[in-house]
Write a structure and sequence with these properties.
Shape: globular
Number of strands: 8
Order of helices and strands: EHEHEEEHHHEEEH
Length: 208
């Protein structure tokens, strides 16, 4: 493989990961079984950036992400509503909308700015964890134009179909920065690298 189709993402705390997996089990629809969240090959996540990486640049990207991770604290996030839409595949999709906050937006913009030239639109369906049809490529190829900076819409995709009876607000911490190999329906199918972000307790220790 000469390239990787990747998602640079925040991974939620273990508690929130389990909550998202439980929510996924209640999604209904004819395509619901096409996205089954788990902790092995379909990780709940909040996308920060997306694109293709040349395999020769993979370690450079990881080094840059590791450096960025040391500059940011684990954000405390909140969701107050669901987002509904359709994927390029035509599947109906439901996600937890995450309220924008300055620290999250800054992390998103920092990653997209500092990885210019390494994460880009040039790639194919063969660069995914499992090969994808060309119709699935429009979002990743146009991520910077349609979903970044002022258009950034943070969310955690819960599943393909409909979801009801979610109790809001949903508050949680996203404590890991991760680089993931993309799978079916833009899932995080394989963890290529991850690192824990600093917690408030770590900052307190540093000051004593």
């Amino acid at each position: 493989m000469t390239r990787f189709a990747v998602d640079i993402a925040l991974l939620p705390s273990d508690e929130m990961t389990n909550t998202a997996i439980s929510m996924n089990k209640t999604v209904v629809g004819q395509n619901a079984n096409e996205m089954v969240l788990n902790t092995v090959d379909c990780l709940p996540h909040c996308t920060l950036a997306m694109g293709f990486i040349d395999s020769k640049d993979l370690e450079i990207v990881i080094d840059k992400l590791r450096t960025i991770s040391k500059r940011f604290n684990a954000p405390h996030l909140i969701s107050r509503k669901l987002d509904f839409g359709r994927m390029s595949s035509g599947y109906e999709v439901v996600a937890l909308n995450i309220e924008k906050m300055p620290e999250l937006q800054k992390l998103h913009e920092t990653i997209n700015n500092e990885l210019i030239g390494y994460v880009g639109p040039d790639g194919s369906g063969d660069d995914f964890y499992k090969p994808q049809d060309d119709k699935a490529l429009s979002y990743i190829k146009n991520f910077r134009a349609v979903a970044s900076f002022e258009k950034y819409n943070p969310h955690i995709t819960i599943g393909l179909g409909k979801l009801e009876n979610v109790e809001f607000p949903v508050k949680f911490t996203a404590d890991k920065l991760a680089l993931c190999h993309l799978g079916d329906n833009y899932t995080c199918a394989k963890l290529l690298w991850s690192e824990k972000l600093r917690q408030e307790i770590d900052l307190l220790r540093e000051n004593f």
